[in-house]
Amino acid sequence: MASTETGTTETAGGTATTDPDRTDPDRTEPDRTEPDGTGPDRSGGDLAGLEAGLDALDTTVTDRRPRLRTLAAKAVPPVVAIALVLGLWQLAYHFELKDHYLLPSPVDVARSLQDKWLEGTLLDYVWTSVSRGALGFLASVVIGTPLGLIVARVKPVRAAIGPILSGLQSLPSVAWVPAAIIWFGLSDATIYAVVLLGAVPSIANGLVAGVDQISPLYLRAGRTIGAHGLTGVRHVLLPAALPGYLAGLKQGWAFSWRSLMAAELIVNAADLGTGLGQLLEQGRELQDMSWVLSAILLILVVGIGIELLIFAPIERRVLRSRGLLVKS
């Protein structure tokens, strides 16, 4: 006789105790039924699958490619483009589209650069221009940023100065050189004045464009939490306008560099030092096209280098932080 209350079973040899919680290995637990008895209850599994899917959506998957393949993907296109330009240049030299003294070969230009390097003067030329350009650009940022904020936020000022800034931005920088020479003479002040007049309008207009693109909701939210005056500018206005402001900074640097070269081409004095613009003018005076093309190449390399090493990483970081650029 089996006792259901004690969990024991009477057998011929005695009694055996059974554990009600222990299940047979081959036994399959029956599915739980829904409260209405219509079928098995799978809500727990469905909920777990839903949570796993949401976790997968929140997880950033980064495709980690080998460093060598990534480097090749970035380096091969510009290398191919440079090789193509050099090949066409060499063909033009070989078929004498211009006389050789007017169109030297890439080897001649490289030899001219090597001569300047061996003389120990090449880095001095580059440093003189880069230091002037950097100082003039920083001064332009200090002046152009508050000017852009005032023009963007004060309507009467914008109505009065906005068209003037746009006109100054379209004015060629070289047009300021004669006036700056009359004002300051052949001095560094002339060069910096031309740089400022070329870069400040670009920086200010870039900031104005960035402020115009801010959603009014952000500004109202900032005022609601008490961000007024300089606090609102620092914590709300400038961060929200950062993409447009950064575009203005990039354009301001381009104008600074171009204005600097225009000023150095014309403002040439012994006590000013020799920058890349003065180097280019010396090549013209000597009628040495290899010298001239080597100076042009240096100006181009410095401009591209500043863009790739400074502005491009900052721009990628800003766009990635706002979800506008996905890292893959």
Can you describe what's shown?
- α4 (122-153) runs antiparallel to α5 (155-170), α4 (122-153) crosses α7 and α11 packs antiparallel against α12.
- The chain contains 12 helices and 3 strands.
- The radius of gyration is 36 Å and the shape is globular.
- It is mainly alpha-helical.
- A 3-stranded antiparallel β-sheet has the order 1-2-3, with no helix packed on it.
- β1 and β2 (8-11) form a beta hairpin.
Summarize the structure.
The protein is mostly helical. 70% of the residues lie in helices and 3% in strands. The protein contains twelve helices and three strands, in the order βββαααααααααααα.
Looking at this protein, list some descriptive labels.
328 residues, mainly alpha, 3 strands, globular, disordered N terminus
Secondary-structure blueprint:
Blueprint: E1 2-3, E2 8-11, E3 14-17, H1 43-58, H2 67-94, H3 106-119, H4 122-153, H5 155-170, H6 176-184, H7 188-212, H8 216-224, H9 229-240, H10 242-266, H11 276-285, H12 289-321
Helix pairs in contact: 3-12, 4-5, 4-7, 4-10, 5-7, 6-7, 7-10, 8-9, 10-11, 10-12, 11-12
H/E series? EEEHHHHHHHHHHHH
Give the class from helix and strand content and strand pairing: mainly alpha
- Using only C-alpha atoms, the radius of gyration works out to 36 Å
Largest sheet report: 3 strands, antiparallel
Mean pLDDT: 77
Shape: globular
Stretches where pLDDT is under 50 for at least 5 consecutive residues are 1-37
